[in-house]
Amino acid sequence: MRSYDLGLQELPFFQGLKPDEVENFIEAVGAVVKRYERGARILQAYEKNERIGILAEGEALVVAEDRFGNESVGHRLERGALFGCSSAILPDFASPTAIDAVSDVLVLWVPYPALLTAGPRLGRIHGIVMRNLLVAFSRKNILMVQRLELLSQKTLRERLILYLLQRSKRQHSRRVKVPGRVQLAKELECNRSALTREIGLMKAQGVLECQDDWMEFHDEQMEERR
Predict the structure, then answer these.
(1) Which residues contact 135 (CB under 8 A, 6 or more apart)?
(2) Contact 80, 35 (CB under 8 A)
(3) pLDDT in tens, 153-179
(4) Which of 43, 58, 63, 194 is the most exposed place for a label (fewest CB within 10 A)?
(5) Dihedrals φ, ψ of 45, to 5°?
(6) 3-class secondary-structure state, position 138
(7) pTM for the structure as a whole
(8) What are the backbone dihedrals phi and psi of residue 21, each rounded to the nearest 5 degrees, phi first?
């Protein structure tokens, strides 16, 4: 399957490259596209890994796993997201995170050792990709800071509002896509029943509109109620 059939040139990792340049990069580093079915484990925790994964299609979930096999659900990954970077770049680091497919997904696997040595063959293409990789790392750090801020909120309502505001900024829309209530409760690290009650209260007060897969927070209504 060719890169332009998947629209890989549209992904942040390849921003600034033309379809034929993306093809050249994939061939030069030996990157491969692999399909995973919904529910499949894409990347195991604590296992040796030398590849950077790029989500080309579908959605996945970050799952933290401790040494006793206990799992806690992290954030979702959408098209264009990178994963496996820490274990690929730091071979002695046993990453405690796994990646699960939420839907049927396509992953472009880029061998990190080949990426490092491909510069002389790829020229400017290599420079653009490495720049994009640094940008992705910086954005990931921002997301980590945002999650710390989210979980530091004192009340469930404050946590939910901040969650929606963060997603609104990333999705460039007041009406944002959200996961199901079970997953949302896990991401907010709260009780599902408590979350359902809070959503109901906010809807009754006119500060929240929602369906199963989207929510829209009305901050102007919140201001009026103060």
Answers:
(1) 12
(2) no
(3) 999 999 999 999 999 998 999 999 998
(4) 194
(5) -75, 150
(6) helix
(7) 0.73
(8) -70, -35
